[in-house]
Amino acid sequence: MRNRMRLALLGLVCLLLTSCAGAGTIGTSDRTLVVAIVSNPQMEDAVALSHEFEKQNPGIKLKFVQLPENQARAKITSSVATEGGEFDVVMISNYETAQWAKNGWLENLQPYIDESKGYDQADFIPSIRDSLSYQDSMYAVPFYGESSFLAYRKDLFAQAGLKMPEHPTWQQIADFAAKLDDEKSGMAGICLRGKPGWGESLAPFNTVVNTFGGRWFDENWNAQLTSPEFRAATKFYVNLVREHGQVGASSSGFSECGTKYGQGQAAMWYDATVMAGTNENPEESKVVGKSAYTAAPVNKTEQSGWLYTWSLAMPKVTEHKDDAWKFMRWMTNKKFVQNVGAKFGWNAVPPGVRKSTYEIPEYRAAAEAYAEQTQKAIDSAKQENVMAKPVPYPGIQFVGIPEFQDLGTRVSQQLSAAIAGQISVDEALEQSQEYAESVGEAYKETR
């Protein structure tokens, strides 16, 4: 099983990278930590503050390798799976953590956490902490956490005489989108991801599948991508974004939707809870104070949404373990949250990780529009709450197996093609079913 998992990971990084080469030789001194992270605003804030860490820890220098999400996943996976040793600290998610810990690729952080006075592991939101644990030990520490919810323009709803329910259904959202869509003014009824990538379009899409009663595999690992429920969810998602979504939806990811919504070009946006900080940042958004936030829309389930956390982990082969932990502790402790708030504004604070963050008066004031909804979304993001049927895999917006990086990416490409009108939904699902069946057969053999 372990060898098969390793081969699967190596195969998928070959698909995602132009070659199977690792990160390459990076010129480092003995006390230089090479940190591989995803490039987004929260991470850029950490990089901007990194000189403070170096000042507090003389002799340790930091070298960041920042990459877009899809590229970062491929490069980090390649390095860790092959024990390349290019990176001392890597940014991974709750998708990878337990799998890689089981494979022995990550350093167990629990001894470091237990010996770090004031780090306060109990302060982590339980669902986030548990998602980064394996056999009761944490193998990654969270930088920020998220679920998903719906942002909508209060002013546009008021002008149209519309009222958003506290727990909307997807049909209600589609009806609102139809009424608010205004092609002449360039206002999309809703913004939804259509960009290929299992961490891009499949994140929101899979929550729609879940609440429609769909699943990727049944309990016996039979692929279910052509089931009535999966098909209904896909047709709904594709039709909604094609009829009332943003221009260029098939190439829109989180960043692109963030720009469109922040520039006042979408009436609603369903995505990660972390979006709220950007929406309410006057330096990045033209709609500050005009949005309200409500629970992820549902269909057959009472709740919906996903659970995700970007976190820091230490590859087992890292030579500078003590130095690496010092940096990881610095970037994920309570003081860092306070520092970001003071330097960049409280809407820039990494959310969804520590309970104490939501007790900071300045943060509560700045995040009044979305803090409570964020907490509720993360707390309720459990499989039993957001899925209508049992599944044999962990994960909500992903299937927690190594092959999903490849499988999910392939299926997302089919979804994107359907959104672009290049193929029909039925054609996309028939091809996707074939991909999923080949993965499911391998798991049937090991049951």
From TrEMBL:
Keywords of the record: Signal
Protein name (record): Sugar ABC transporter substrate-binding protein
SUPFAM superfamilies tied to this protein: Periplasmic binding protein-like II
Signal peptide: 1-23
Protein's UniProt keywords contain Signal: yes
InterPro entries membership: Bact_solute-bd_prot1, SBP
Entries under CDD domains matching the protein: PBP2_TMBP_like
Gene3D superfamilies: Periplasmic binding protein-like II
